[in-house]
Amino acid sequence: MANIKITMTQLRRMLQFLEMDISQRDISKKLHISRTSIAAYKARADGSGKTYQELLKLDDATLSSI
After folding, report:
1. In which region does residue 16 sit, left (phi positive, over 0), alpha (psi from -120 to 50) or beta (all else)?
2. Where are the alpha helices (DSSP H) in 20-57?
3. Are 24 and 35 in contact (CB under 8 A)?
4. What is the H or E stretch that residue 21 is in?
């Protein structure tokens, strides 16, 4: 799990970038988040069984519980 929690805005932006197939390295540069944190959040998103688009449609509380 990531050591630093990110904001919901950053998480949603990260999901948008992942959906657009932007590399984790580029996402890291754009959002100023470590690649390790991005990898951890990506793994949790991928493990949810939902697409990035489906995750983006969730409300903040539901998304943060994933």
Report:
1. alpha
2. 24-31, 35-47, 52-57
3. yes
4. none
How many Cα atoms occupy the beta-carbon half-sphere of 1 within 13 Å?
Answer: 5
- 8-state DSSP, 49: T
The string of pLDDT tens digits covering residues 6-53 is 899 999 999 999 999 999 999 999 999 999 999 999 999 999 999 999
29 CB-contact burial (10 Å; exposed 0-12 / middle 13-18 / buried 19+): exposed
CA-based end-to-end distance of the chain: 12
For 47, phi then psi, to 5°, come to: -75, -10
